[in-house]
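Reminder to self: keep the SMILES exactly as supplied, no canonicalising. Ligand is NAP.
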Amino acid sequence: MAFPLMVRNPTFHTHQVTALSSFRAKSLSILNFAKMEGSEITQVARKVGDDDLSLKKKIFVAGATGSTGKRIVQQLLAKGFAVKAGVRDLDKAKTTLSSTNPSLQFVKVDVTDGSDKLAEAIGDDTEAVVCATGFRPGWDLLAPWKVDNFGTVNLVEACRKVNVNRFILISSILVNGAAMGQLFNPAYIFLNVFGLTLVAKLQAENHIRKSGINYTIIRPGGLKNDPPTGNIVMEPEDTLYEGSISRDQVAEVAVESLAYPESSYKVVEIVARPDAPKRAYHDLFGSVVQR
Ligand SMILES: NC(=O)c1ccc[n+]([C@@H]2O[C@H](COP(=O)([O-])OP(=O)(O)OC[C@H]3O[C@@H](n4cnc5c(N)ncnc54)[C@H](OP(=O)(O)O)[C@@H]3O)[C@@H](O)[C@H]2O)c1
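Structure tokens returned for the bound complex:
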């Protein structure tokens, strides 16, 4: 599996990812301990044994307790990555995600806290950041702007501070609905009427694209918790304006984008359709031409 990221350990190759994903628990001696640095890193899992955790590529996932974020974490772990899960609530994280996996580390973060704190949380041992955050509905009408725009911008700026040069964002179809003639699409109206959610996401996307960071912006259609019922359709930006997709597939696209150089510096829109042909990821990503 090719890995088009900045490689901090140049001796870490494709076959090692596969090999690491199948390492056996019996060879491990695991030490979990708490570490306080301000209020930030609150739990660290370390493995001491024949297989060295430091050989695994570490991915930071923001919004790791979310419905899509937790699936991204699970799939990354299954693929042999180490994961630093950025979460607001550690107790929730421990029930949502496995707290005993030595490759999983929890970091308490709020993306509205600013880039300095986020940079400290991401750390200097992270290869890529996956952002699966989304505001939680409530009384604060500015929440979409704070989380989906400024929060994501803060994460990108944090990446720049710690030299992380790979960023995967879960955004949404229709973020640029006004420009693609979908101003009166009910979904565009609904998602913007409270807090300009899609406009906020588009602002964050624009920041990422100007930042110079190697990005893949994934814009899914309506998200479903159900398992996939169709194959993935992947199109360029501002193409899809309807359709839905399983969160399992969104998570898969996010994880696979780390493996395929064809996904770099691209915005991809995804839905699933039962009548769509099954296509390999290099073909899906490769067929999207960035404007
Ligand atoms: N719903 C749809 O049909 C749809 C369609 C297209 C795109 N999307 C987008 O896809 C993404 C994932 O959606 P989802 O429904 O899977 O997400 P979700 O379940 O709503 O999870 C959102 C995540 O964001 C976290 N979060 C919220 N505010 C935060 C903050 N200030 N700091 C740090 N983390 C924060 C939440 O943390 P807590 O768990 O602590 O609350 C949670 O982990 C979102 O950006 C969403 O807008 C959704």
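Points to follow up:
Confidence is low (pLDDT under 50) at residues 1-50.
Residues 134 and 148 are 6 Å apart (CA to CA).
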